[in-house]
Amino acid sequence: QTYAPKLILLDITDISCIRDVAKEILNCYGCVDVLINNASMKVKGAVQSISLELDKKIMDANYFGPITLTKAILPNMISRRTGQIVLINSIQGKIGIPFRAAYAASKHAAVGFFDCLRAEMEEFDISVSTVNPTFICSYHRQPAPGNWEASIWK
């Protein structure tokens, strides 16, 4: 069956709305065959210069966002005993580099979660993949003086 595309906006850092978005998708289409978690946020800076608030925002975008969306879609896949889940992650989920601690930590956490999920979903014939590309070109916001968000990449 062919479905008309539907645009649904989602701020992956807003954990409270992810379940509602997943519910909207499932209500519209009935199921999700392939879930690709591709949203990401990164920051560059020394550990002591990055606020805990920004650390948490990076963790929400790169770890809690994808796992919350995956957990919201997963029961439907399990009940149908089919599906594919993909995490587009980063090589920094395997190897940390200086000035990327928050980003690397969030990507390490995501790899750990999806590695465990892969083992758990085998019995339900659900495929779980993690893609860890090397450095990619991303959109970068130009810094405003004194703005901590200046070094955020989306």
Topology (elements, then pairings):
Blueprint: H1 15-29, E1 34-37, E2 42-43, H2 52-80, E3 83-88, H3 101-121, E4 126-131, E5 152-153
Parallel strand pairs: 1-3, 3-4
Antiparallel strand pairs: 2-5
CATH overall fold name of the domain at 32-134: Rossmann fold
Question: What does the largest sheet look like?
Answer: 3 strands, parallel
- Spans of at least 5 consecutive residues whose pLDDT stays below 50 are none
Give the integer mean of the pLDDT values: 88
Radius of gyration: 17 Å
- The CATH top-level class label of the domain at 32-134: Alpha Beta
State the distance separating the first and last CA atoms: 34 Å
What share of the residues does DSSP label as strand, in percent? 5-15%
* Approximate shape: globular
| Architecture (CATH level 2) name of the domain at 32-134 | 3-Layer(aba) Sandwich
Q: What order do the strands of the largest sheet run in, or round the barrel if closed?
A: 1-3-4
The assigned structural class equals alpha/beta
Task: Specify the helix fraction band.
Answer: 40-55%
Topology, number of strands: 5
What do we call the CATH homologous superfamily of the domain at 32-134? NAD(P)-binding Rossmann-like Domain
How many helical elements?
A: 3
Order of helices and strands: HEEHEHEE
Pfam families: adh_short
Keywords: NAD, NADP, Oxidoreductase, Signal
Protein name: Dehydrogenase/reductase SDR family member 7C
GO molecular function: oxidoreductase activity, acting on the CH-OH group of donors, NAD or NADP as acceptor
